[in-house]
Amino acid sequence: MAVIGIDLGGTKTAGIVLNGESIVARDRTDTDASSQESVLSCLLEMGARMREAAERLGLSVNALGLGIAGFIDFERGVVTEAPNHPLKDARVKDILEAETGLAVFVDNDANMAALAEARMGAGKGSRYLVHLTLGTGIGGGIIIDGRVYRGAQGAAAELGHMIVLEDGPLCNCGARGCLEALSSGVAIYRRVEEAAAAGRASPALEEFLADPLAFSAEALGRHADAGDGLAREIFQAAGHHLGTGIASLVNVFNPDVVTLSGGLLGCLHHMEEAMLRSFRETAIAISRDHVRILRSTLGDDVGALGAALLARESLS
Fold first, then answer.
1. How far is Cα 316 from Cα 314, in angstroms, rounded to an integer?
2. Candidates 3.40.50.720, 3.50.50.60, 3.30.420.40, 3.40.50.300; correct CATH number of 2-116+300-315?
3. If we measure between CA atoms, which residue out of 153, 74, 70 comes closest to residue 110?
4. Does domain 125-296 correspond to CATH entry 3.30.420.40?
5. What is the pLDDT of residue 69?
6. Span 47-61, average pLDDT
């Protein structure tokens, strides 16, 4: 049975067709988030394109899974809160089922990444897995006894908003010292801004000051690769806090695997030594010595793949 998976991102929407263990079609498009209607239209168009791709291959599709950033009422398929889309209180499941005639299942995008890693990715075969998405922000998903853990209201696994440094930097959520405020792309950019404001000098800061809006963690990574001491210092600070956060998660959940995905993976080699040192110093030995910390093996497909797996497993 073939199923469709769609990962709705803030700027890009990705779709796949999953047949057995193979992705047989994929597509990406820009997300028009100007209105609730435009987002729903984007989802319907991607679903139609993926269905047509499946039919060209002689495959029949009867289910569609969606991964959406935000808080999801999974049983009703309603987006209760969506920070990056105008989908608050949108009855996405009902709307798409009525339009497509397919069974539709909706969940948080980071939950879907965790499911994909546990079934087909770096954590394949694990029944206890914690997944962190490292990008502009930090998201997460948790697999307990082989199942996605969603919490009482679909708001579980906001792992980026775990406090790891009391009275630390202000986070976008309003709290201080969240993992996201210390180890995300936004946090790394903030440290560059602070270093520039303090009058420090480095090649990375020269590039930043020339065009602050164009500067990114990727740019900082290039300077760290070239030996820029300040760039490496900033990454090491982010890695230290990331390791502390991972240790706390391992202490609480005792997983087999912690998997990492997202845009910051390209810079992880600058963070990894400090991350692992902090992790080893902080995690409880019995859990520390059991868990594996692994990079995602699924690349850009991870969210859409998890959504497709959700659809398939929800029907079985």
1. 6
2. 3.30.420.40
3. 70
4. yes
5. 85
6. 95
